[in-house]
């Protein structure tokens, strides 16, 4: 009998928990995908600041990466999740004393993960910037492209190709870091698996399922990235 | 020729005005300064001797727990990483496949999931784990023999944390070790073989000294990652640094509980980072020209 009941627990529907975990996996993917563009954008600008000639700009960018790479992800998350409402409460008291603030765990997770992701991604972008010879900029300026156009048309296409493998690593660790947001109550894969484990008392099985979900996501994204890499390579060959 | 040379004027020094990057840079630095001052001001204003007297010893104890957890896990992980790295490099398909799966699993899943799997998941096998026991001498009113089972090991959250962290770091360290050993050129092996050194001697006297220089920085990074990751054992009720901060926050609802812990982690990580850089500078002196 126990074998049969295990299969019922893993089924889709009201008796089983697979639908809950699948929903959680969806939330995990949504969180990671929502974080990605923000993190990439911030990371790109941080890298730009780090290789600028202006010392104050470099200093500001270096403080950013030192802080967000030095703090444990969990501490950053807790500081933000518990600290931000207090701060906002103090600020909003001047305008509307009766208002209360609640930080959505998805949004808090998104912001914190973007901060962490961007500080790692900025290092990747920075080393990619350094790999691009100076002549590329000079060539761009020589044919009369503006600063911005040189960046967009000449540097960025090469930069992305060089930075891609490093960014893939950042993406994988972002995917794994999303599990931390379960601690502040986001119903993602790990949290739903944990609920199932507590209700059914089959902890090992449900946490294994959660691990398999993350493993599956990692495998899927490695397929996706190799496909992207192949298309990038093809485009390079066409030029 | 000389007449034209005197005609050439030096370009005027570039005007040190306020271009846009400088304005942005100063603004951002000012923002950071304001942010830092804000936190310092908050900590000064919220200075609470009672809070400090109550929780500072707990924080110190938590720091000890964090450091010992990381140290034990790193050492066990280093020992475990040797066979895994050997398997990864072996030409035996089964062995290398097994090692690859091990590394892929531990690097592909979140450490939090692995920790939960050990701490909560092992409870599913309590009856089986309680079966195997060994008798160890115990000093409790005289020397007596007490039966210890695997369950006695796994029911303690700290042990579970060490177990999960050691397995996890073993996977990462195996990759570091493999990368470092493979970074040594093949000619080094061949040269040693032609001198008549056998494999183990070659590894110990020729390969490892070169490989470990390459491996130092990744090992340092792994140590830093472990210290940062160790905060998650707070979730499985270990009272490490983060666990004590959680407790302090739950009791006082005072956000400085987390600010202080953030400062401690940041200082720890920065010390380690600069320490590793310093060691690397020292041991690569002979490679610089």
From TrEMBL, chain A:
Keywords: Cell inner membrane, Cell membrane, Membrane, Transmembrane, Transmembrane helix, Transport. It comes from the Bacteria. The keyword Transport applies. It holds the Pfam family BPD_transp_1. PROSITE patterns: ABC_TM1 (PS50928). It is found in: Cell inner membrane; Cell membrane. Belongs to the binding-protein-dependent transport system permease family. HisMQ subfamily. PANTHER family: ARGININE ABC TRANSPORTER PERMEASE PROTEIN ARTQ, CATIONIC AMINO ACID TRANSPORTER, MEMBRANE COMPONENT. Residues 25-225 form the ABC transmembrane type-1 domain. One of its GO terms (cellular component) is ATP-binding cassette (ABC) transporter complex. It comes from Mesorhizobium kowhaii. This is ABC transporter permease. GO terms for molecular function: transmembrane transporter activity.
From TrEMBL, chain B:
Its main location: membrane. It comes from Mesorhizobium kowhaii. GO terms for biological process: amino acid transport. Keywords: Cell inner membrane, Cell membrane, Membrane, Transmembrane, Transmembrane helix, Transport. InterPro entries: AA_ABC_transptr_permease_3TM, ArtM/GltK/GlnP/TcyL/YhdX-like, MetI-like, MetI-like_sf. One of its GO terms (molecular function) is transmembrane transporter activity. PROSITE patterns: ABC_TM1. The chain crosses the membrane at residues 23-45, 65-86, 98-120, 132-150, 223-243, 255-272. The keyword Membrane applies. It is a multi-pass membrane protein. This is Amino acid ABC transporter permease. It is found in: Cell inner membrane; Cell membrane. Belongs to the binding-protein-dependent transport system permease family. HisMQ subfamily. GO terms for cellular component: ATP-binding cassette (ABC) transporter complex. Residues 63-276 form the ABC transmembrane type-1 domain. The keyword Plastid does not apply. It holds the Pfam family BPD_transp_1.
